[in-house]
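seq/struct pair 1
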Amino acid sequence: MAQNETFILHAALDGRRAIYRDIEIDPAKSLTRLAGTIVQAFGFDFDHAFGFYTGLTLSKIKIVHPQYELFADIGEAGPGVLGVEKTRIAQAFPQPGHTLLFLFDYGDDWLFRITLKSIGVKQPKARYPRVVAAKGQAPEQYPAPDEDETDGPRIGVNPRSGEVIRFGEK
């Protein structure tokens, strides 16, 4: 890895690949720095734990190695899981085309597919990291709850009697 190289990483919202950000970053930076940049590029607050995974589906995320988690940096990860603070982007993305799944916020499970798109060259006076391409409106990190999720009454029907039942009323 040359000192004047940059990595251009394609960060697509999993399941909505038309929503993406291409990020140019110094490959010597940590995965933590990359995570913060991705989250910021999508307009989210960087306020949750996260990890990068070789397993590219939720069913394989905790099976396939290597895995890189914030939990490893605080001593709470499973065996064989690497940290994100000391792992450099160049280590996690060894060649163009390499893809990792980025999981942000283990409660809401924001999933991003991160692919090393290409290797660039640092430009004079440019500030890194930077977003070099963006497509699609990012979803809200904390969307308003649906009406079904409110604390108001819900209505059901007793299948035997046909009686209307209201749940959640006092």
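seq/struct pair 2
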Amino acid sequence: MFLRKTIAVLASVAALSVGVAGTAQAAPRTLTYNSNAVTSAALKKAVDDGANVWNTQVANVRLVKTTGAANITVSQDSGWPRAYVAGLGRGRWVFGTQAVTDGHHVVRIAAHEFGHLLSLPDRRTGLCTDLMSGASAGTSCKNPIPSAKEKAEVEAAFSRLVTVGPSTFVDAA
């Protein structure tokens, strides 16, 4: 009996490794966000578009808008954008309009700030291809799409459910 079970397990592993049998994909982790405190209609749309960027770029996390209690809350003020991370997929971020006034792309700002709540730190590389380079990429950068490395980091964080400690990210030029 033991030998039969062992052979069955080994056959299953072999089938999966050569692609004979499909692998079950875990359902994405759903995170809710609430942007009720964003007063500008254009910025509310940018928040939704920023969430959609992540929804189309990673498979194991899904950002869903709600009007009630949420994992992530978004507000607006006249300062610089910033994120307050309470844990993986939890916290709040502020759509600081100073970056908008200075000419930074609104959807890039939103996707960048969501990136912090999804485990990514600021990386001031100056490269427009790096979403988490933020303002260092300059006002001509309109790219809201995370790089392959950034996508892989978010996928890895949510597949392992890494522990993300409280942190604050303030985006300034």
